[in-house]
Amino acid sequence: NEYILEVENVKKYFPIKKGVFSKQVRAVKAVDDVSFQMRKGETLGIVGESGCGKSTMARLIIRLLEATDGVIKLEGKDLTTLSKEEMRSTRRDIQMVFQDPYASLNPRWTVERTLLEPMRVYNIGTRSERKERVIDLLNKVGLDSSYAKRHPHEFSGGQRQRIGIARALVLNPKLIIADEPVSALDISVQAQVINLMQDLQEQYNLTYMFITHDLSVCEHISDRVAVMYLGKIVELAKKDQLFSNPLHPYTLALISAAPEVNSPVKKERIVLKGDVPSPAKPPKGCAFHTRCPSCMDICKVEAPTLNEKEPGQFVACHLYQ
Ligand code: SF4
Ligand code: MG
């Protein structure tokens, strides 16, 4: 199997009541028919504004949430049909790096304990082998053994995120999902953490799903990029294609509004009308039509599907169908 991860027609609908006294139930389509694949060693950037479904996607893959529909395969094995017991052994293969390392680290645990715990839970190695691995991991993420006995509050944000990354690496996962891993850090520290992630990827052939709202971070780290809008992928392409020749009007608007991003299409800033509509009430037809500068009549009634326009570049837009 050439893919590490295959996501096929995945949906996550959250039911909501129409009103306090209403029995009618409506659904928030947080993830709506999303499909993509990932190869070993690549970084897939997932970019979009808050509420576009990118974090929900991550939670579906690690099964913190159950998908309403669709298939999620890790090395060909469908995760959505695994029992709790089977999922327990698979869970170690997918690790997350979170936005706020402080919230995701136990404040009462030393760094050593934080890194030992996953190995203890999965019964890996002897006590002394585990301790050796902790020191090795600390070195890998640019910290040293003197950090082992210290607690999270003694560290800077960047150091805490290095520990979050070390923890994600402990069990040699097949896939690492990083959900806004540098958004809470100062700009200068962001670059250090991203460079660290890239170095580690090169050394250990790691596979990253990198979720961000920041297009320049996305450009820096990704091999391919998926752009999400209201629960759907609207464009999916190799990084160079996406930034040199964006096809979807939303991608174009995002690039035009990102000052650090290099792209030949950036002539003037495209300002979109209004805000992202509520995912509980997405517009009919193309969900982007209420804000799209290129909206046509068909866009208001018919939803476009994601099609391959150029080799490796997929877009969901009637301009190309
Ligand atoms: Fe704009 Fe229509 Fe394309 Fe949607 S389908 S992005 S409304 S042109
Ligand atoms: Mg999020």
UniProtKB/TrEMBL annotation:
Ranges of residues in domain ABC transporter: 5-255
Xref: InterPro entries: AAA+_ATPase (IPR003593), ABC_transp_ATP-bind (IPR050319), ABC_transporter-like_ATP-bd (IPR003439), ABC_transporter-like_CS (IPR017871), Oligopep_ABC_C (IPR013563), P-loop_NTPase (IPR027417)
Keyword Phosphoprotein: no
Similarity comment text for this entry: Belongs to the ABC transporter superfamily.
GO molecular function, one term: ATP binding
SUPFAM superfamilies per the UniProt record, alphabetical: P-loop containing nucleoside triphosphate hydrolases
Protein name: Oligopeptide/dipeptide ABC transporter ATP-binding protein
Natural source organism: Cytobacillus eiseniae
Keyword hit for Membrane: no
Pfam family, one: ABC_tran
Keywords per UniProt: ATP-binding, Nucleotide-binding, Transport
